Amino acid sequence: MHSHPAIHNAMWPGLVGKGPDSEPPIDLETMLDLTAGADVNGVKFDGVDLFLCAPHTDIDSSDDEIKALAERIARKGLRVGSLVAPVWGATGGGSAMVSDAERGAFLSQVKKACRIGKKLRELKIRPSGIVRIDSATGVEEWLKDPEENTKRIAATFREACSIAEDFGERLAAEGEICWGGMHSWRRNVQLLEMVDRPKTLGFQADMAHVMLFTMGYNAPEDKIEGALELAYLEVASALRPWTIDFHVAQNDGTVKGSGSHDKTGKHCLPYDPNGKLDIVRDAGAWLRDDSGKVTRATQHICWDGCMFPNAVMTDQKTWNDVLSVMIAVRDAHGWD
């Protein structure tokens, strides 16, 4: 058994995909308790990745509130890793592409997230992690002028990099089929190269979301024909050099949206018989380089399971099963 990377659980599935037309949110305390309660032969989760959005964590939290949050998490034997900046219009942000006002709101949310990240590092509760962003704009809007719109997103991301550097933070852009300019593997590479700030901006790879890239959802021109395992390796090979944050996940090859989340790759439970990925094998496409050497590019890995029903989310067995596959990934691709 390896001791690295650390194993984290995402808190945002308690919020993302929930809402008036779905199920009610699951509060942070419950998500923390379920995470802390998971145990597989004495091995437990090391930490959590947070969504900086109320009702979990208010992006405008005071220093005292951030300190209280850190103490609350530490009491459960957990640490903090990566943070999701609420860059979308519905959460106080705006499109990275559309207007100066929206771009300003986007950058304001990045700045607030980086401030919280720095404070959590100073409190010694956050030894690793990034601030996660995306373009916060839809594919249809982006398609009106793809090349010019990608340039605008890149310009916004460069400004976000300067903000992050002021706080000693790094950003990771998570590609998903629902985000304009980040909806295919090729477009993600193009955007990252255009921003050209590799020390500050990298890629966040979610195993479930990137699988949809191979199938050409929302970008049929970038579909990769042939066996899924080989197509998946091709996508990983293109984006791995940029990858600085990694989500373990499963996908059944369908597209789903619910509540507050636009249509994207449907996450499945780790042992779902309809899952298309061999989680342990395919995690290696990201955690090992083309020669098979472990990259050590991420100090922790995180499980992401958005849009599961609340009955599944609040069952302790769910998190024991998740933890077991996370341990298997670390044993296969980790280090000491």
Condensed summary:
This protein has helices at 28-37, 63-75, 100-122, 139-142, 146-166, 185-195, 207-215, 228-239, 279-287, 310-313, 316-333, and strands at residues 6-10, 47-51, 79-84, 131-133, 171-174, 201-206, 243-248, 250-258, 261-268, 300-303. With 336 residues, it is of the alpha/beta class.
Describe this structure in words.
- With 336 residues, this protein is of the alpha/beta class.
- The chain has a single domain (6-333), classed as Alpha-Beta Barrel (TIM Barrel).
- It is 40% helix and 17% strand.
- The strands form 2 sheets. Strands 1-2-3-4-5-6-7-10 form an 8-stranded parallel beta barrel, surrounded by 7 helices. Strands 8-9 form a two-stranded antiparallel sheet.
- Helix 2 links the parallel strand 2 and strand 3 (79-84).
- It is globular.
- The N and C termini lie close together (9 Å).
- The model is unreliable at 257-262 (pLDDT under 50).
Summary tags:
10 strands, TIM Barrel, single chain
Distance between the termini: 9 Å
CATH homologous superfamily designation: Divalent-metal-dependent TIM barrel enzymes
Q: Examine the secondary-structure arrangement and name the CATH architecture.
A: Alpha-Beta Barrel
CATH fold topology: TIM Barrel
Mean pLDDT: 94
> Largest sheet, order of strands side by side?
1-2-3-4-5-6-7-10
Q: How does the helix and strand content classify structurally?
A: alpha/beta
Biggest beta sheet attributes: 8 strands, parallel, barrel
Order of helices and strands: EHEHEHEHHEHEHHEEEHEHH
**How many domain units?**
1
Low-confidence stretches: 257-262
Fraction of residues in helices?
25-40%
Strand content: 15-25%
Question: Which word captures the global form?
Answer: globular
Number of helices: 11
